[in-house]
Protein 1
Amino acid sequence: MPYLLATGFVKGGVGLGAFTEAAIGDAEVLALAAKVKFVIDPDNPYPNNYTGHIRATLKDGSVIEERQPYLRGGAQEPLTRQDVTDKFTLNARHGGWSKTQSDAALKLLAGLYDGKIDLGALRA
């Protein structure tokens, strides 16, 4: 959990690329991860519901708190089309696809039921 939270703060998000050999040795991420402490809430409704709660104490002593009442992407809080597109793009980049290939795949998927499918653009 400390690594995931630190990566999210430092990199702006956590995708498959956060788990490469180079990524897990990132000094800035590891320095922040060393400052993260976590406590398991015995009253958490897991596994019936996936919730989250974070409390961050800033350098000036102020505290920021946020609660996530439901699993983001679950039935109560579904992902938006843009969330899914962004996740696809990150995963495709991690898999070695160029922006051109990712864009071609998204265009193909958007018109999936519009007629004959040509996968040639994805092999470039």
Protein 2
Amino acid sequence: MIQFRMLNRSKGPAMWSPRTQNDRMKFSEEWRLALERTPNIDFLAGNGFGLIVEGKRVVGVKTALGIEIKAKAVVLTNGTS
């Protein structure tokens, strides 16, 4: 954190609002490291091509390279390149 301010201090405590100015690169790096140290989570970057569905459940992802990745849970996020 580079700077911290509490906004609306002239009003009651219910209206106070903390704000911080952060080092974006450091923040991003620390979150990535914290997530990577979390057990039982794997992060894969790539282009998803389709979902693998069995019955009414999504059980995996098929990548643009044709690789099928099966899992108990699938989280899709939009990214930019």
